[in-house]
Amino acid sequence: MEKQIIQSSNAPAPIGPYSQAVKAGGFVFVSGQVPIDPATGNLVTGDIATETTQVMENLKAVLTAANLTFNDVIKTTIFLTKMSNFAAVNEVYGQYFSDNFPARETVEVSGLPKGVNVEISVIAGA
Fold first, then answer.
1. Helices marked H in the chain — which ranges?
2. Domains in the chain: how many in total?
3. DSSP conformation letters of 78-100
4. Distance (Å, rounded) from C-alpha 22 to C-alpha 123?
5. Is 18 helix (H, G, I), strand (E, B) or coil?
């Protein structure tokens, strides 16, 4: 199976040996995004809504680089360090989807890269 690496300068550069996204077999697998401002490389901190907005904008940038939108997303995975943030994250997340919502799971984890509070990955149809 042929694979194509997707890269966007409008999303944070990978902080390890992985790609922002990989297109293969008619799907685009977008690596988990955290609230890093791609222009500065700095973490976006504050409340969970602000962090989630940055995560969603990073996902949007990678999807755009693959000529896709949130309408093409089939599945998402949300990682939270505190499930008590679920309602606020869900409110921001919901603003990026209008119809035909993707499948999703949300899990609480003990820690995330760079000590962030939220990370989201997506799989989209190409």
1. 48-65, 86-94
2. 1
3. EEES-GGGHHHHHHHHHTT--SS
4. 10
5. coil
- 12: CATH: 3.30.1330.40
78: amino acid identity, one letter: I
Residue 15's pLDDT is 85
Residue that wins the pLDDT comparison between 85 and 1? 85
- pLDDT given for residue 99 in this prediction: 86
pLDDT band at 79 (very low <50, low <70, confident <90, very high): very high
Residues 6+ apart with CB under 8 A from 25: 1
Q: Supply the mean pLDDT for the chain.
A: 96
- What pairing do the DSSP bridges indicate for beta strands 103-108 and 73-80? parallel
Surface-to-core class of residue 75, CB atoms within 10 Å of its CB (0-12 exposed, 13-18 middle, 19+ buried): middle
User: d(Cα 37, Cα 23) in Å, to the nearest integer?
Assistant: 24
pLDDT in tens, 36-64: 999 999 999 889 999 999 999 999 999 99
Domain range holding 76?
3-125
